[in-house]
Amino acid sequence: MKRSILAMAGVLSLTAASFGTAQELPDDVMQIGTFDSRAVALAYYRSPDGIARMSGEWDQKWEEAEAAGDSAAMEELKLFKPSFQHLMHQQVFSTGSICNVLREIDDDLAMIAAEAGVSVIVSQWELPYTDPDVPLVDVTPQIVALFAADEETANYVAQMTDVEPVPLEEMLYQPEH
Prior knowledge:
Blueprint lengths: L4 H15 L12 E4 L1 H9 L2 H21 L2 H23 L5 H18 L3 E4 L12 E3 L1 H6 L5 H10 L17
Parallel strand pairs: 1-2, 1-3
């Protein structure tokens, strides 16, 4: 997905700022890039692309099914919105996988990895063990910057670091809410 020049400038400025704290490591030391998936999900779903994807695609499919008189498709679409809302809650408030969000930015992850000097980028919640000698590099700000977060979103993202995620098994599906 192509990003605007503004988003890229944000990534570059965040990356440049992080170089000041980078350590010089031997060439044979692998570093792992980590990110807080909650922050990335929040930035995406509050971005213009995320909002358009959530409502635009659903509305278009609904209109097509309605025009075609496809009641089966309409019933399925009625289930989609609350199911998707539950998925978003798992992703933003807990540690649910954000593979659907990462697909939107997969072209940009190699650049972030190269600039951060990491060999792998993985959610910090999906890294149950790491050898203490393997350096971890937080690339959350660089990934969040891809979505050109507004000031309100940036404030929410900053606050997330102080809040533990809700355990995923406690994120019960409640379609009536």
